[in-house]
Amino acid sequence: MPHHHAGRDDVVDLAVIGAGINGLAVARDAAARGLRVVVVDRADVGAGTSSTSSRLIHGGLKYLERYDFTLVHESIRERHLLFRTAPHLVRDYPMLIPSYKGDSRPGPLIRLGLAAFDVMAMNRGRGISRSVSVRKVARRWPTLSRKGLRGAALFHDAQVPWAERLCVELLLDAQRLGARVLTYTTVTGLIVEGDQVRGLRIEDNATGERSEVRAAITVNAAGPWIDRILDGQVKSRRLNGGTKGSHIVVDPFPGAPDTCIFFEAASDQRPIFVFPWQGRYVMGSTDLTYEGDLDEVVASDAEIEYLLAETNRIFPDARLAPSDVLYSIAGVRPLPYTEGVSDNAKISRGHTVLNHAPAYEGLLTVIGGKLTTHRALAEDVTDEVLRVLGRRPRRCLTRERSFPGADTSDWKAFAQDFIRSSPLSGRQSRRLLTLYGVRARRVLELAAEDPSLAHVVDAETGALAAEVVMAVREEGAVTLGDILLRRILVGLGADMGLSAAPACADVAVRHLGWDEARARAEVADYEAELRRFRPRVLATSTSSGSDRRTP
Description:
The protein has helices at residues 21-32, 69-85, 107-120, 134-140, 163-176, 226-230, 301-314, 374-389, 411-421, 426-436, 440-449, 465-475, 480-486, 501-511, 516-530, and strands spanning 11-17, 37-40, 56-57, 91-100, 130-132, 149-159, 180-182, 185-193, 196-204, 210-220, 243-250, 260-264, 271-277, 280-284, 288-289, 325-332, 351-355, 363-368, 456-458, 463-464. The protein is an alpha+beta fold.
């Protein structure tokens, strides 16, 4: 179980602050290379920025625009590796890029960029780009606006529909390799002795018990919160300049496309996605300078109206209104602080590993990083940790290492056999495969051992009670929010899992030792957690007024 605390005399090679995708990836890589690792996070794994992305595994096409060829190469390589190591979670994702009169990026420039990208991605993609004429667009995507349309291009990228599960599997693999992960444990301070950082002071959120994790090296991988970790203890320039990105989720609408459409917003030239996702549609994202509370990041009315207006513009039949938004998702990208930037898109999406020596020996801070390149970031961090420790370089193992859900010699054969032999409906079986991969077998085992766990807890998805039990017993979930939003994912349905919440809490009462009082409290806490999504089902009036400017 991830939720435990370290003894007062704990001494490890590496203490990692932050159990987002980057912190977990660092733990996995370092543990695979033989280091003793402890990860600490004040909340659940992947509960911050990692769960607010566009759910795309970018090959790096948009970084060509800034001539960041290093990041493009890295993104292509990491996308290719994820196709192989996490085939249940990452899939080929075609997207249409229409070109309209007045776009800041004319069609010929886009086609040139795609041609260059295809050369760089040779043999490491799932198809080459191709031009699409106005006539073909009209035939294949008839509801797309043809006003000023100059043509289009079809590009192959990748999607991770459940980025939350990517984090869970990094957790599982890091633990399998010997790392310990302490969730719901707050870092109250760094242990600073002279010019040495010797680890962390921590507090268990549930019990209030305080202890220390003494470590040879401490890695600050807290994403947008990196400055907060250092504040008052480590003298440093400002490191994080994260921008706010918001998405909205709607039901299928008139004229909705069956593929991702990647287009330029008329109002500010920002690239926007409209894409099908789990039977619904996601629109996003914004890219705003953000100086507000990092713990209260909420999509503003202005952002929602901006995304709806741009979607309505290219899909004239849509006529989407704010009342159509099921919920919104907002987060802050962990970008490097860059002074005087007028266009946030120009801020680097790469990552750097800052060594605070000689002023603070033993402390590293990770600046930047993105979903696609989490593994490469972790490899760089572990290389630096070994160098600082004075140890010989050790070969990185994560380039070839499959995720736990892909731990089979033939993924396609496993998937076919699972669907054929599963006692569940085809829809339920396919859902289990896309969430758990080969670990879907474990769900069926639990349901077979106790028939009450074969009970459906969510009518929309067909999720089983066994998944609730597995989430807590085997995947580190602590709260109802952990279960619904970051394990079994029914919390990202139309009503954000509110109808399923009581049934899931009841499973926890019957099988996981919760009492009725805790079950009621968890349901109430879950509803409170949802308010930052502004879900329609709660008819919330929450609005964010902390943006420095509107989109």
